[in-house]
Amino acid sequence: MKKFQTLIVLVFITTIQLHAQDAKMNSFIKNLISKMTLDEKIGQLNLPGSGDIVTGQASSSDIGKKIQEGKVGGLFNIKSVAKIRAVQKVAIEQSRLKIPLIFGMDVIHGYETVFPIPLGLSCSWDMQEIEKSARVAATEASADGICWTFSPMVDISRDPRWGRVSEGNGEDAYLGSQIAKAMIKGYQGDYSNNTNIMSCVKHYALYGAAEAGRDYNTTDMSRVKMFNEYLPPYKAAVDAGVGSVMASFNEVDGIPATANKFLMTDVLRTQWGFKGFVVTDYTGIPEMIEHGLGDLQNVSALALKAGVDMDMVGEGFLTTIKKSLQEGKVTQAQIDEACKLILEAKYKLGLFENPYKYCDEKRAATEIFTDANRKTARQIAADCFVLLKNQNNILPLKKSGTIALVGPLADNKENMPGTWSVAANFSKSISVLQGLQDVVGNSAKIIYAKGSNLDGDSLFEQRAGMFGKSFNRDNRDENEIIKDALNAASQADVIVAALGESAEMTGESSSRTDLGIPKVQENLLKALLKTGKPVVLVLFTGRPLTIKWESDNVPAILNVWFGGSEAGHSIADVLFGDVNPSGKLSTTWPQNVGQIPLYYNHKNTGRPLGDGQWFQKFRSNYLDVSNDPVYPFGFGLSYTNFSYSDLKLSSNSLKGNQTLTASVTLTNNGSFDGKEVVQLYIRDLVGSITRPVKELKGFQKIFLKAGESKTVSFNITTEDLKFYNSNLIYDWEAGDFVIMVGGNSRDVKSAKVNWMK
Ligand code: BGC
Fold first, then answer.
1. Does the CB atom of residue 420 touch ligand 1 within 6 A?
2. CA 506 to ligand 1 center in whole angstroms
3. Domains of the chain (ranges, CATH numbers)
4. What Rg do the C-alpha atoms of the chain give, in angstroms?
5. Secondary structure of 410-427 in the HEC alphabet?
6. Residue 287, ligand 1, Cβ within 6 A
7. For residue 732, is pLDDT > 70?
8. Quick count: other Cβ atoms within 10 Å of Cβ 418?
9. Maximum Cα–Cα distance for the chain, whole Å?
10. pLDDT tens digits, residue range 400-421?
């Protein structure tokens, strides 16, 4: 009782303190705005790129001049604390009102210490590790002057043709929402010190639903689908207190997100209570001219009126909003509101108190790319890899004998960090070859041969080269190159083939229509399999690939995504069993491109295919391929075996706000200690709208020693049963539900429950 009273008092005091802080901020900002000219207010809404800034001459650059005139609110993607300090100095010493700038960057999966690509991170299903990765990223970025990151990207996507699946958390809204919360906590903390940076959730909204997986393409979906399946992670970010939101490039309901009042005001602010500011994506405003919404003045006015506050690169606000005000197309209140929200963000970051809060050269020298951070990256990456196949327990490998390491990704550093590693120094990342050598030392012999180029006609190599991720193309005939690999293989006990995509085959503007491993690499793989020696495929990718043939024919497959700075070490840790893999897929892997979109939480349809069936006439299926994926959502093997038994429900019939407990016995039957992601799914059997065949509603990552058993329990409440109905009302409906628990979305134990109002 006493404890409870103390808690109430504490909550009361904290609430009063927060109110006092808010009041202080409000009066500070109000006072500042009262001193600002219209041009200065509009200037705050302008976010140019880093432009032509040179450290020693910041004020004489074009951007420097604009800063002096109060025409810039912030800058992004400038690297180095010295440069940022120099630019901030121009704002503080040479602009009339000395308003500090905000400095953003795409710190997406780490800063100089790079973690696995977000799709990889999501496969750890470990929220503490994901939060930690964001914390490390924020600490390093803030040590280098950055106070704002354009992350997390939470776009749900069910289309792996879209290259940006690599930047998101997969296909599931529940998992994506948990990750959004963890990342924001890791970045922002409580803004109390200079390692906390502001987060920007993106790309609001539905960017991952681009038609045919072609980047920047049109999206269109029902509101019911939008609210139930695509919007939850953005909302979770808002609930977690995200400081800013980035508008997406695509249209929603026929209106580009950047001018979409329904999204930016009605949903984001009115329904969800978002208090921060909205920034466009890169040139999002002028792109609306191409969308067909009018000239720059018109589209800029539309964006402001919709609830967009800051214009990234487009300069539509800077050059046209004043005219629109004079012509009555926007109001003074709309300009003031946008300006206020941006100033508030700067206030929350503490920039008015100390504009150089994030410019600490000592921190920059000691807190970036540290041994400790690299160690964290190494551990986390190993937990993101997904063991897809391990026939006859080929893995883990022995640290003895001879290993042939082949493939275009085996001795390559530049591609290890993956797409969107803006701040990374590629030459410092660890290749697979180096990782293996470091881990086995002299106890095993490693013979390396490239064995093939990345691709036959060098299309992907050229595109990789655009971002400094070279492949040193071997211009010999394909068969000559393979011969080197076969020669290495002939001397080896086991073959490790590092194959797949290059980093830039996914990410922005990297959509593909063929999701296979490039042909020359597949030819290499086939030649290696013909030797009869055991082959381990170490698969690099930023998306689900169509690897049905590989899955049927290669004995062991370890999917390593792009693991970051320490990729090579982490890969070696897992290959040699120092770490037991525990990653689980956050996406479904289709058999072929024709099955896309293929996702676990689909609807049943009126003509579902019978369980375990392939073709049935007049049922929902294909003539030429089954409905099954190669690997289902949630799937991932371990070096040990986990079994599930004894699913128990605390009751089979519930009423109102009661809590249901579902428990299962998890046993580690194998000979390795290991971690297993226990997943809870629910199916709502009857609804006022059709409901998915199952939906993820909980998960726990459990460590068990070899031979150990544990009861794993989930508490389920009516919150877990809620969905948006056709009137977009969020509630649950009474009836029967199937509760499922298992190690992936396909292999589950199930039990039924009735839940009445
Ligand atoms: C991307 C964003 C990114 C921005 C700034 C855009 O092209 O879509 O994700 O944050 O550029 O670099």
1. no
2. 14
3. 202-344 (3.20.20.300), 378-575 (3.40.50.1700), 640-756 (2.60.40.10)
4. 27
5. CCCCCCCCCCCCCCCCHH
6. no
7. yes
8. 35
9. 80
10. 999 999 999 999 999 999 999 9
Going by the DSSP 8-state scheme, the letter that residue 229 receives in this structure is I
**Residue 513 CA to chain centroid, in angstroms?**
22
pLDDT, the chain, mean? 96
The helix-helix angle for 332-348 and 296-306 (nearest 10°) equals 60
Whole-prediction pTM: 0.97
How far apart CA 558 and CA 575 sit, in angstroms, is 8
Q: With a 6 A CB cut-off, is 215 part of the ligand 1 pocket? A: no
Amino acid at 145: G
To test the pocket of ligand 1, the residue of 50, 107, 279, 508 to mutate (highest count of ligand atoms within 8 Å of its CB) is 508
From residue 376, how far is each of 136, 542, 563, 566, 617 by CA, in Å? 9, 21, 12, 9, 53
Ligand 1 centroid distance, CA of 151 (Å): 10
Spatial distance between the Cα atoms of 595 and 613, rounded to a whole number of angstroms:
16
- Alpha-carbon distance of 639 to 581, in angstroms, equals 7
- Tokens in use for 622? 């294909």
Q: Which helix (H) or strand (E) holds 135?
A: helix 127-143
Residues counted in the chain: 757
Nearest to 545 by CA among 594, 593, 497, 584: 593
pLDDT tens-digit readout, 159-214: 999 999 999 999 999 999 999 999 999 999 999 999 999 999 999 999 999 999 99
| Cβ–ligand 1 contact at 720 (below 6 Å) | no
Alpha-carbon gap, residue 98 to 588, rounded angstroms: 52
User: Active-site residues: which are they?
Assistant: 281
Q: Which atom of ligand 1 is nearest to the CA of 167?
A: 9
